[in-house]
Amino acid sequence: MNPQTLSLRALLFLGLWQTGRRCLASAPELKIQPQKIAVVGAGIGGTAAAFYLRQEFGPGVKIDVFEPDTVGGRLATVKFGDQDYETGGAVIHPLNLHMKHFIEKLGIPPRKDVPSKAAIFDGKELTFEESDWYIVNVLRMLWRYGFNFLRMHMWVETVLDKFMRIYQYQQYGYSFSSVDKLLHAMGGDGFLTLLNQTLEETMMAEGFSQVFINEVVSPITRVNYGQSVRLNGFVGAVSLAGADSGLWAVDGGNRRVCSGLLYISKTELITAKVTSISIKVRPSKSGTTTNFYEVNYVGESGSSHSLYDIVVIATPLHQGKSDIIFSGFSPLSRLTTPDATTRLSPL
Ligand SMILES: Cc1cc2nc3c(=O)[nH]c(=O)nc-3n(C[C@H](O)[C@H](O)[C@H](O)COP(=O)(O)OP(=O)(O)OC[C@H]3O[C@@H](n4cnc5c(N)ncnc54)[C@H](O)[C@@H]3O)c2cc1C
Fold first, then answer.
1. Ligand 1 centre from 47 Cα, in Å?
2. Which of the four pLDDT bands, split at 50, 70 and 90, describes residue 167?
3. Which of 65, 150, 168, 283 makes a 20 to 30 Å CA pair with 240?
């Protein structure tokens, strides 16, 4: 077994981790069953990873999740009085099948709908005000924006349809060595083009009117991401999906899902910040060598380290965010290796 291949497979990077059951090579196919796995970060990425790793490798593997802060990461709440309010990832799209699956598995109910109405204020006056009557809303939209609104929904649907392919890739155990490659597999060149132009440019090219972009699209991107329509076209499409109907949230806070996943996957939560990860090599029974990882961390009781067969990084790697030093390998060069899309085969 090529040690490079093993480490590439073993170290999965989870900026976009929404992994399905068979994203890793399935346990029976593995020649070497991992004994210990580390997951860095207990946001939804890390806790979902722990859940799927447990499913994949069964009860025999020890899974440690490192988190210096609150479980949930950017799924965060703040308490005012007796009420918890979402301050991070607040709403879940109906096509987020993983979150649906998780709350069913955990027996956590969705939050009851709080009826609300939308209005658009341009700084001087309300340019649109939602009515209780669906037909009135449709007519108002048609009157002011023609078919732009309907076309926006259709455009977002097209993007989401392609996005849904991710579930199939996960089901059949595909992995991708870069985000670009994953997006290309989902949406072809169209998705990559979206990455390289602004939402405004994208929508203008699709024939949407400037008035519609200013009065409807811009408030949506401002409310959802605090950004103008000059944000990246792909992120912009995701932001517009965040204005779809059917959005929901978890009763008591979305981050409950993260704690629940840690619990049912029987992982050990280590309250510590990972400072460095280095790759090591050891001889295997068969006479070849295998890779493993030394994870160094700092917790309340000081510095320590542990050894793992697999390390999953489920935290952004930006400088100033996770500050993890990688020794003996560079995760970013691995993310851009030209080996392209690979279907995981037995190790
Ligand atoms: C204000 C806001 C609103 C949002 N709204 C929505 C929304 O409505 N709907 C939606 O679907 N998404 C929304 N998102 C996006 C969504 O919240 C994130 O995509 C998602 O929570 C990211 O999860 P993650 O696990 O990848 O990362 P994170 O949640 O960031 O988790 C990473 C974890 O790693 C930990 N960590 C960092 N460094 C280390 C280290 N060195 N060692 C150990 N642990 C470390 C961090 O403490 C953190 O807990 C929103 C995000 C924000 C910020």
1. 11
2. very high
3. 168
- Ligand 1 binding pocket includes 18 (Cβ within 6 Å): no
Q: Which residues pair with 297 in a beta bridge?
A: 274, 304
Identify which has the larger pLDDT, 114 or 162: 162
Ligand 1 neighbourhood includes 45 CB (under 6 angstroms): yes
pLDDT of residue 30: 54
Q: Determine whether the shortest distance from the Cβ of 187 to ligand 1 is under 6 A.
A: no
Q: Which two tokens stand for residue 151?
A: 């076309």
**Which ligand 1 atom sits nearest the alpha carbon of residue 45?**
25
Binding site membership of 67 for ligand 1 (Cβ less than 6 Å): yes
Ligand 1 midpoint to CA 267 (Å): 19
Lowest mean pLDDT among 110-114, 269-273, 276-280: 110-114
**pLDDT per position as a tens digit, 63-93:** 999 999 999 999 999 988 888 889 999 999 9
Report how far residue 268's alpha carbon sits from residue 187's, in angstroms, rounded to the nearest whole number: 37
27 pLDDT above the threshold of 60:
no
What's the mean per-residue pLDDT of the chain? 85
Distance 317 CA to ligand 1 centre (A): 12
> Count of CB atoms within 10 A of residue 187's CB?
21
Yes or no: say if 6 and 278 are a contact pair by the CB < 8 Å rule.
Answer: no
CA distance 186 to 117: 34
Indicate left, alpha or beta for 323 from its phi (over 0: left) and psi (-120 to 50: alpha): left
Cβ–ligand 1 contact at 39 (below 6 Å) = no
Quote the CA–CA distance of 173 and 306 in Å, as a whole number. 29
| CATH architecture, domain 3-74+254-343 | 3-Layer(bba) Sandwich (3.50)
pLDDT for residue 122: 81
Cα(96) to ligand 1 centroid in Å equals 16
